[in-house]
Design a protein that fits this description.
Oligomer: single chain
CATH class of the largest domain: Alpha Beta
Number of strands: 13
Strand content: 5-15%
Order of helices and strands: HHHHHHEEEEEEHHHEHHEEEEEE
Radius of gyration: 26 Å
Strand order of the largest sheet: 2-1-3-6-13-7
CATH topology of the largest domain: paralog of FGE (formylglycine-generating enzyme)
CATH superfamily of the largest domain: paralog of FGE (formylglycine-generating enzyme)
């Protein structure tokens, strides 16, 4: 009784209004009920009501502060975009000088240093723009509330017990042998009708280093985007029906640093630690380097979707030339989301949703991908083990079709220009020119859980070379 009396005195003096948490008040209420003292119970209940009133006022203040903060973010975003557009125009002008009138690169000492400076500033601004866009998506409120605790718990239990919402569905695979590197005149291509016949199994290290492994995906119809009212719905994720009329192959893994090195002879990534770099995803590669003019990091003319041509010096150009596979390319945005979902309609391809954007660790995403809360922000990621920043590809659970890392690790370039969805579509190709930005999908190691969902959309200047952006290869069949 003495303990309860002391507690009651603290409450009646009003001290807890400032310092007591809801949890401590609820515990105090329970203890007072246990002692059978109705006066203490009533006092504590009144205090809880007062605390709720204070919280409501604090909430209103937070909303006001949030609006002001959001406006500041938006203003800076607009400033960044204006400067980026101006620098892109300057980059195109200088690149024409460096390439020369015939398109052949020339040694122009006057424009070369200036071009390098423009690109450096452009990269800095693009990185800031991406962070501002992410901040706006987190601070604005077009995204719906988190699922109920009970639902989230049920989803996590299902994730643990079955790994995925549906059992693995086997299919055909294609393997491209790039082990001979840049000196090879051809890259042999082999087909397998099931994962059981793959030498070493689908998650063997060979398919993360010396060979490219692609999985055949059947054509079909699915709901692209997310429904209004769905957890974490974004304003640019308007749900609509999409039909893909052709089967296609897509990479089982994100392209790794060793695979890029073998094809291109370079190691451009930030996280290029000598011991572990080979099986980590390649990053700091631009859309242009992947499929267009990699020598000067600029667009080819005409470019996709006006033409599916690729530059011979690009990553895709070299693959096409040495395999004879003329439709190898990045996936379209629709192909990417269809492959990511693997038949699911939820935020994650495991059949669940993250439980809350503010959680320190999210059990649902922990199982299927690398994101900011399991990416380890300490240490030196360039030279340490891949337990910070990017992870070794294939470290997390695959989806129903055996595809790894569709959530997190690195953002993945898609063919499409970024723009509003056009509604019900068949084999969509994205927004038309003159829109400049290209689509990035899947979230990344530095992103929060709800920015790594199946429907989440990102975009960036196709010349950007950022440490959270990579890709996986695809090939549309006739």
């Amino acid at each position: 009784m003495k303990k309860v009396t002391v507690m009651m005195a603290a409450v009646l003096w009003g001290c807890s209004l400032i310092s007591a948490t809801a949890a401590s008040l609820e515990q105090l209420e329970k203890e007072s009920v246990d002692t059978g003292n109705p006066e203490v119970t009533k006092a504590v209940q009144q205090e809880i009501q007062l605390l709720d009133a204070v919280r409501a006022l604090e909430g209103q203040a937070q909303v006001t502060n949030s609006i002001a903060q959001r406006q500041q973010i938006m203003n800076r975003f607009v400033e960044c975009r204006k400067e980026i557009v101006a620098l892109q125009a300057k980059q195109r002008e200088l690149s024409k000088i460096v390439k020369g009138p015939t398109g052949v690169q020339v040694n122009d000492q006057s424009s070369g240093p200036e071009l390098a400076g423009v690109r450096g500033r452009l990269m800095t601004l693009q990185r800031e723009e991406r962070q501002l866009a992410l901040a706006m998506s987190d601070s604005t409120a077009p995204r719906a509330a988190t699922p109920s605790t009970q639902t989230a718990q049920q989803q996590r239990a299902r994730l643990v017990s079955t790994s995925n919402a549906a059992p693995f569905e086997d299919g055909a695979y294609m393997v491209i042998d790039i082990s001979k590197g840049t000196s090879a005149t051809t890259y042999p291509v082999t087909h397998f009708d099931s994962s059981a016949k793959l030498p070493g199994g689908a998650n063997d290290v060979l398919y993360k280093t010396e060979k490219l492994l692609l999985r055949r995906i059947p054509s079909g119809t699915f709901m692209m985007g997310s429904a209004v009212g769905a957890p974490y719905h974004g304003h640019d994720e308007v749900q609509h029906s999409v039909t893909l009329t052709k089967n296609f192959y897509i990479g089982v893994f994100e392209m790794t640093q060793r695979q890029w090195e073998l094809v291109m002879g370079k190691r451009p990534s930030r996280f290029k630690n000598p011991t572990f770099y080979q099986t980590r995803p390649v990053e700091c590669v631009s859309y242009y380097e992947i499929r267009e003019d990699s020598q000067i990091n600029m667009a080819s003319d005409p470019d996709w979707p006006q033409s599916n041509q690729v530059h011979p010096h690009s990553f895709v150009g070299r693959l096409r030339a040495k395999t004879g596979l003329t439709t190898l390319d990045l996936p379209t945005e629709a192909q990417w989301e269809y492959a990511c979902r693997g038949g699911t309609t939820t935020g994650l391809n495991s059949g669940s949703y993250p439980n809350d954007r503010s959680d320190l660790v999210d059990p649902a995403l922990n199982a299927v991908g690398r994101y900011i809360r399991n990416a380890g922000q300490n240490g030196n990621p360039e030279y340490g083990e891949p337990n910070s920043a990017t992870a070794t590809v294939g470290s997390y659970l695959p989806n129903r079709w055996g595809l790894y890392d569709m959530h997190g690790n690195v953002l993945e370039w898609c063919l499409d220009r970024y723009g509003e969805y056009s509604g019900k579509a068949k084999d969509p190709v994205g927004a038309p020119a003159p829109i400049f930005a290209r689509v990035l999908r899947g979230g990344a190691w530095r992103y929060g859980a709800t920015s790594c969902l199946s429907a989440f959309r990102g975009s960036c200047d196709p010349g950007a070379q950022l440490d959270d952006s990579g890709f996986r290869i695809a090939m549309t069949l006739p």
